[in-house]
Design a protein that fits this description.
229 residues, mainly alpha, two-stranded parallel ribbon, 7 helices
């Protein structure tokens, strides 16, 4: 009840859930029906569809008939409806690896131990980051797992920016593969001295060539030594 009263007083809160019923309605902290309307808030689905390896690269407009938390939060911030989009082409535009977005322990915030104005005009995502709470996930930026709240912050920013990343056409992927495959041979050629040509001869053939060259050089020296004006 206190949480709902606080959300109602703030007037700008969005809740997240990971459980949804068959009708697309959130199962939110076991509150009675109508409580979300009382709190003057909205609820978004905090789940992500993952790629192989459990990596979070993309975000969905909605899951289980409930708009995603990122979409719901973006609509609340902007006051505008977000048009539906295809999750296959909605890549999360990460600001950087885990730890890029500033985090503040809840205990410090509760004590007021932060610089005045830190959260003014900011989107604040409240959640767990301790490894013991198992809300760490592999993402497409960096090698370290990222806490769920930081992933949500990146997803919200991505929606607000209008989903700036998109998949490239298949034909462009093919061209990139061909070009990247040619870089190594081109680099080896570029490291050779200009005008040089390396020719490999069998050992016996190479000796014959050297012998003939020696004989020609010896004949030339004799010709020059025996010539008189």
């Amino acid at each position: 009840v206190l949480l709902l009263d606080a959300a109602r007083a703030a007037g700008n809160v969005v809740f997240a859930t990971t459980e949804v019923n068959e009708d697309g309605e959130p199962k939110f902290v076991g509150v009675a029906q109508g409580s979300i309307e009382y709190a003057r808030t909205a609820v978004g689905n905090a789940n992500f569809e993952t790629d192989p390896g459990g990596i979070i690269r993309r975000l969905a407009y909605g899951i289980d008939r409930l708009p995603s938390f990122a979409v719901t939060a973006a609509e609340r911030v902007s006051g505008q409806r977000v048009e539906s989009f295809d999750a296959d082409d909605a890549w999360v535009d990460y600001f950087g690896p885990a730890g890029t977005i500033p985090t503040y322990p809840l205990a410090r915030v509760a004590k007021g131990d932060f610089k005045r104005g830190t959260f003014r005009d900011r989107i604040v995502v409240v959640g767990a980051s301790a490894p013991s709470l198992q809300d760490l996930h592999p993402v497409s930026f960096g090698n370290e797992e990222m806490p769920g709240p930081e992933i949500q912050a990146n997803a919200i920013a991505t929606v607000l920016k209008g989903l700036p990343l998109s998949s490239v056409p298949g034909w462009l992927n093919l061209i990139l593969v061909i070009v990247l495959g040619m870089l190594s041979p081109i680099r080896r050629l570029a490291t050779q001295s200009p005008g040089t040509l390396r020719v490999r001869l069998p050992v016996r053939g190479a000796r014959d060539v050297l012998r003939r060259s020696d004989r020609r050089a010896l004949s030339a020296r004799r010709f020059r030594a025996g010539a008189r004006p």
